[in-house]
Amino acid sequence: MAEQWLASVDLGGTTTKIAFITMDGEIVHKWEIPTDNSNEGRNITINIAQALSEQLDELGETHDKLAGIGMGAPGPVDYETGIILNVVNLGWQDNYPLKDSLEAATSLPAVIENDANCAALGEMWKGAGNGARDLVCVTLGTGVGGGVIANGNIVQGINGAAGEIGHITAIPFGGASCNCGRTGCLETIASATGIVRLAMAELTKNELLGELSELFTKNGKITAKDVFDSARNGDLVSKKVLGEVSFHLGFVLASIANTLNPEKIVLGGGVSKAGSILLEAVNENFAKFTFSAVRDSTKLALATLGNDAGVLGAAWLIKNKLNQ
């Protein structure tokens, strides 16, 4: 029989990314479907199964072409049981048996993992990690997620909640409120949302002139991309925000590196598309706060896989499970 494929899913609150991937990690076909979180999320796995069948038909393949299915899901996951402990925006009750639901819908062996952990595994396997077996991946998007890989294995923790880098406290007192219910989390500073909040706070302090102020006046809003673009052009407000973001992010990453000494820390997510202006500023602060042996061995890098990281990591997981 010809080589089988792996089905892989990156489940999001509004969109579900799906891919067929070879055993060597090559993406054969990828597409998206809307995430239907109505009816307490009961349609989610059913819709995924239907989407798999439809795409197999279009490609002239049968169900036997698929060896198994891996999924990255937002929220803490009990890896052994495939139960997702709690999650917002998907309609499920706490402790939802996602693995069992996915296997029943697709008739495939399944594995479930946190989506940020899957992104980390994807970067390890096919991205910026370049095969590094000790790796930390930090996703800087609307929020801040993280995945920790030690000796090639995801660190899950006692309750599946390891790697919540976005909820490391960066500002112990007087920090901004976080969606987790606490204040001062790294997510309130280094996420796209946090960057915009910091920039708006600066813009409203005084009648400030400059590129970022002009963009706000023109558009009625600003984005994290606006902040980085303006910083490149020397805008003083944007440079101040970049300095604050890079300080806190560099400090937190240094603490992680001093604890774990990974080969690489990979920065991904939409914010990481700022590129060298962000990486260089974070690196400068990272170097200040790392122990010399760590500073000389742990390197920061930008993610290379973009939106494909999650599906590749989920595919890596189901491949390994099938090979056990």
Salient structural properties:
single chain; 324 residues; alpha/beta; five-stranded mixed β-sheet; 11 helices; 40% helix; 20% strand; globular
**Poorly predicted tracts of residues:** none
Number of strands: 13
Shape assignment? globular
* End-to-end CA span: 21 Å
Computed CA radius of gyration, to the nearest angstrom: 21 Å
- Fraction in helix: 25-40%
- Decide which structural class fits the backbone: alpha/beta
Helix tally equals: 11
The major pleated sheet works out as:
5 strands, mixed
Order of helices and strands: EEEHEEEEHEHEEEHHHHHEHHEH
Strand content: 15-25%
Mean pLDDT: 93
Sheet with the most strands: spatial strand order: 3-2-1-4-8
Summarize, please:
The protein is of the alpha/beta class and 324 residues long. The protein contains eleven helices and 13 strands.
Protein described:
With 324 residues, the protein is of the alpha/beta class. Helices cover 40% and strands 20% of the residues. It is built from 11 helices and 13 strands. Helix 1 packs parallel to helix 2. The protein is globular. The model has no long low-confidence stretch (mean pLDDT 93).
